[in-house]
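re: ur question from yesterday

yeah so i grabbed the chain u mentioned. its 265 aa long if i counted rite. heres the sequnce exactly as i have it in my notes:
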Amino acid sequence: MNALPTPRLLPVQDPRSRGLVLDHADMDDLVAELVLPCGTSMYVMSALETSRELVRHSFHRYEFATVAVTHALFALEHVLAERLGVEEPLRVLIARAADAGLVTAGLAAELDRSRLLRDGLAQGVASSAALPPLRAVALVRAVFEAVSLLLHPACPPEAAEAAEGGAADLTRLWEEHLRAPFPDGFRGVDVDGVDLVLLDADVAGLVQSELSGGLDDEGIAVLWRCIAALDRIVPLVNEAYCASYFARLRAVARVAAAPHTPAAT
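ran it thru and got these structure tokens back, copy pasting raw so excuse formatting
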């Protein structure tokens, strides 16, 4: 006689995570913007992917959110040491990267917050329940952004990955970007003479035009001016989430512009 199959139990939500999402499937949306950089080593890819999955599973174990941040630092430390060509403590590596202009000061500060958390855990002055999942996502996002900048300083990884994918990948990247809220506190803010809200709106309209039938010559020219503005302002933004938001917007804009790039002569 065959035994009855064991019923599959759905993940039970940790009471401390209530109010974050309605069910476990919604955690996918929470980590959707944590896009793995292309061209990384298997070690870095594995560490970042594990970090992202730990955030997802903080749905049923709150402490996984904090562990996700500390695990992401394995990838960051490896990439920093390789890019800078030195073996130093992570604190020194982050400072060196900021001094060399490889990451913004704001991004470096966010990375150092993760490093301080890791050190606090090691010293027993912080607990594994130190971070709520939303804060963990912000810190892990900063690591993803830093790794992307360190590996592909001139070409955001989203653009490199999607350049050959055409409209389908542009649609995917644009939908991912739409899920990210505009940075709090930056409405009405100018950076180097560029109004961030207007720039965001301009790129949105141009991307929608490209997706709905293609840009005309005037639209292409405006899109390239927007990309030039994004290239100028992204390194100047000193807040990690805002910098990552506009870096992602720049990546989307470059993918939208890729079919209209003049051929080399």
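noticed a couple things. Residues 74 and 93 are 13 Å apart (CA to CA). also Confidence is low (pLDDT under 50) at residues 154-165.
anyway ttyl
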